[in-house]
Design brief:
Elements lengths: L7 H8 L19 E4 L4 E4 L2 E2 H7 L2 H10 L5 H12 L8 H6 L7 H12 L12 H27 L12 H10 L10 H13 L7 H10 L5 H12 L7 H15 L5 H9 L20 H16 L6 H15 L1 H5 L7 H11 L6 H22 L28
Helix pairs in contact: 3-18, 6-7, 6-11, 7-8, 7-18, 9-14, 9-17, 9-18, 10-11, 10-18, 11-18, 12-15, 12-17, 14-17
The structure holds acetyl coenzyme *A.
């Protein structure tokens, strides 16, 4: 199908031979027109637009519109989209009782996996994934309700009352208010912090066929409802090799800080290079980027802005992260393996400065990635050639044998 691409389906039809590719290192699982990555150049485009331009000129809801519809909205289209999303920000009041079933110290991703899957029990008019109208309204509901659910999970964990959404605010201001507002006083959003959070959302909105997106596609390919498919994506994102890396990265920085901070960076890097240690430099490396992740560059810029706004220019973890990056980028171990900072390397420091607790970092990622998941699900179901995902296996177990009666087994 292209100069560097073999369509193996024809070979399979002719010969019955299939490929063995654990981890999908060299297998495209689908065609997609949503997100393009050039891993060697460190380039990321949503629907053809460079991530840098989107982060500079657009807000998150415009980015959502783009990912879902293929084009950026004009003023009228944006106003209509914002109004539609705002009309769905509340969740059914029964969700509170669902939430109350969890321990207060439950991990927010455990809670979110349950709550998102639970949405399918409330919206029977948007559970038929084959129906484009159902998918469209499910997409709006998911984008609109994720901030409410994440903020509810946070408020529940700290024992504060939930703050209901306010639809005269922007998407991101509304989220910040639901997170940090209280019934006792009016929450006044800080523009720099809102813009930083909005940028985090834009940078995390989609990233083609990563593990969680592939999970959503595979799960959705069975015809399950969109809420269930997105809940599967949330579950997959939780892992430390994927969305959980931002939390793991911040924890790593805090551990190095406790060990002695910048002075111990060299020692830590030596530990990472020792394969027997099992320690990885979290927030570094990527399956596709073999160059600097463009999102990490933008996140580092945002980090400077947020820390300056908060008067935290001397933040020890930021200094530590910059020192780690400097040493790693000069070290042959990282250079030869083309390991560069990924988006998670700086996003944790930004979120921490904004006041987001570390355990909520991955839930914020899930909030932002929801639009990518749903856009990818739509694209798959809308493709007349789509089939249920069903990978083959290379069987290496026992060949056929007879069952020995239990009394005679050794
Ligand atoms: N620290 C130290 N060594 C690393 C790291 C790292 N962060 N990442 C990769 N390597 C080494 C591996 O040990 C391996 O070395 P070898 O060739 O000597 O065996 C080589 O680099 C290739 O690594 P793989 O694990 O084979 O690469 P893969 O593409 O499978 O993994 C991954 C990519 C999971 C992102 C990996 O780089 C990693 O674990 N990074 C840390 C976790 C992280 O930051 N994840 C976030 C990814 S971005 C995102 O999800 C938003």
């Amino acid at each position: 199908v292209g100069p560097d691409v073999i369509d193996i389906r024809k070979l399979y039809a002719q010969t019955g031979k299939f490929t063995y590719d654990p981890g999908f290192l060299s297998t495209a699982s689908c065609q997609s027109a949503i997100t393009y990555i050039d891993g060697d150049k460190g380039e990321l485009l949503y629907r053809g637009y460079p991530i840098e331009q989107l982060a500079e000129n657009c807000d998150f809801l415009e980015t959502c519109y783009l990912l879902l519809n293929g084009e950026l909205p004009n003023v009228t289209e944006k106003a209509k989209f914002v109004k539609t999303v705002n009309g769905h920000t509340m969740v059914n009041e029964q969700m509170q009782f669902f939430l109350r079933g969890f321990r207060r110290d439950a991990h927010p991703m455990a809670v979110l996996t349950g709550l998102v899957g639970g949405l399918s029990a409330f919206y029977h008019d948007s559970t038929d994934v084959q129906n484009p109208e159902h998918r469209a309204i499910a997409a709006i509901r998911l984008i609109a309700k994720m901030p409410t659910l994440v903020a509810m999970a946070y408020k529940y964990s700290i024992g504060q009352p939930y703050i209901y959404p306010r639809n005269d605010l922007s998407y991101t201001s509304n989220f910040m208010r639901m997170m940090f507002g209280t019934p006792c006083e009016e929450y006044v959003p800080n523009d720099v912090l809102v813009r930083a959070m909005d940028r985090i959302f834009i940078l995390h909105a989609d990233h083609e066929q990563n593990a969680s997106t592939s999970t959503v596609r595979l799960c959705g390919s069975s015809g399950t409802n969109p809420f269930a498919a997105i809940a599967a994506g949330v579950a997959c994102l939780w892992g430390p090799a994927h969305g959980g890396a931002n939390e793991a990265c911040l924890n790593m920085l805090e551990d190095i800080q406790k060990m002695g901070g910048v002075a111990k960076v060299g020692k830590f890097i030596e530990q990472v290079k020792d394969k027997n240690s099992g320690v990885r430099l979290m927030g570094f490396g990527h399956r596709v980027y073999k160059n600097y992740d463009p999102r990490a560059k933008l996140m580092r810029e945002t980090c400077h802005e947020v820390l300056a706004e908060m008067g935290l220019q001397n933040d020890p973890l930021f200094k530590l992260a910059m020192e780690l990056e400097k040493i790693a980028l000069e070290d042959d171990y990282f250079v030869s393996r083309k390991l560069y900072p990924n988006v998670d390397f700086y996003s944790g420091i930004v979120q921490r400065a904004i006041g987001i607790p570390v355990s909520l970092f991955t839930a914020i990622f899930a909030l932002a990635r929801t639009v990518g998941w749903i856009a990818q699900l739509n694209e798959m179901i809308g493709d007349p050639e789509y089939k249920i995902g069903r990978p083959r296996q290379l069987f290496v177990g026992a060949t056929a044998r007879d069952v020995t009666p239990i009394a005679e087994r050794a």
